[in-house]
Amino acid sequence: MAGAVGARRESPVRTLVLGSDPVRRAIYIIGAAPGLWAFYKGLTDQLGADPVATLERLLGLWGLRFLIIGLAITPLRRLGGPNLIRYRRAVGLLAFYYACAHLATYLLLDRGMDLASIWADLVKRPYITVGMAGFAILVPLAVTSNAVAIRRMGAAAWQRLHKWVYVASALAAVHFILLVKVVPGEPLIYATLVAILLALRAVFAVQKRVGRGGRTGARATASRMR
Amino acid sequence: MHIGKASHILPSEITPRGLYLDRRNFLLGGAALGIAGGYGGSAVAAPLQAAKSPFSTDEKPTPLKDVTTYNNFYEFGTDKSDPAANAGSLKTSPWNVKVDGLVGKPADYQLEDILKGMALEERIYRMRCVEGWSMVIPWVGFPLAELLKRVEPQGSAKYVAFETLKRPAEMPGQRGVFQALPWPYVEGLRLDEAMHPLTILAVGLYGETLPNQNGAPIRLVVPWKYGFKSIKSVVRISLVEKQPATTWSQQNAGEYGFYSNVNPEVDHPRWSQKTERRIGEGSGLFAARRPTLMFNGYAEQVAGLYTGLDLRKNY
Asked: Which of B180, B181, B277 sits opposite A52 (nearest CB)?
């Protein structure tokens, strides 16, 4: 959604990173805290016996959590809760930053930039393929998460592009399920949340279409014929 | 047969002292296990006398803290920290081990009776988890072959089956609607694998009785196979004719096979087995993965068991 550009013109980079109002700034800072804290703990040997695996898991989890929070914003509004749409960009970008950190941990700390083994993982391990695909989808979404992009693309095209977050979220949930040994557990909880939120959007989409069809007249007919 | 270099490090030198509580009597084997307990529980570990063994590796053992707080013991929960947190509730004394099946002298042993006359050895072994991490653990135990010889396996016996206990009242992972695995946990070995000198029943770790989270009071250690084959807290050992069921195979037959020999050439269906992360190695976050060795580095001792066997088919 278009951000509120106040009288003061900030640099686009600063806006992207820090948000253009205090609440958004706070969201970025509080949102980044778990990741920074985990990295600090990793450096000071407080992440347990396998710090790389633990850090990788934590960063991935927070990415998934922010994706879920972002998906929940519209249902929350539709079901009578507060309207937090203006904060959805911050939430989405946080999800992306965590996905980047999660990927960087995998490439640098886990695989030590061993390109051969990374490529082997990518083609032979479904959970890696799925994870990479999810990340790849998030990249254009992150890049277009600003007012300039919305203006250039036009609202309709922008919204169509950003619907791909549903696919990315589903891929993230599947990525998590595929990498654990036993399924009853954490991954199932996240997968269920994602499924519920996607189902709600489907319900809203159906409601919308039914609503339009319920009205009589040229407008309704025209929209049905589109 | 190649025999590895003997370690010259005493168990007491390896163990960091620090958090230990009052020491109990210094005892030889047997009776000490009556007071076996976990660091998370109320009982205190007791020291064990153990002889050095040429089968020990001279690689640096993993810190005790990591060995006792990073565990897969789903009977106590599926997080790595769950066993240390929850295993205190397990009562490891009195403890019985039933040895039965195709044997001339079946018996229902008290643990103390098994250890009577059993010379304990220190075996510093590599342990490789199927998940891709590994440790070096200074176990204290005795060759499984010694116990099996006592009960006289019959000619028809081809395999050894093992069973862990099912005690939901003391093991939170066995309660509730969703169970991670079918209980009780079972495992098995071919008879020649069970009789191999490397295969031990461990009763201690770092010179003291096993903490609960490491499979107290007695567990199997088969160092050339993935860690889940080294069944913990054993209550039953049976000599059988047919290949026995194993829990992880029941859980997912396509991913976990009966043999489960450590093999960098045969990937797990979902991840590679070519490399591993050695736990507790110096640089923590920046420690590089290391290549996994065939049979976890015990190829010279055990490869002969598998000549002619297709290790890809028999994963």
From this structure: B277
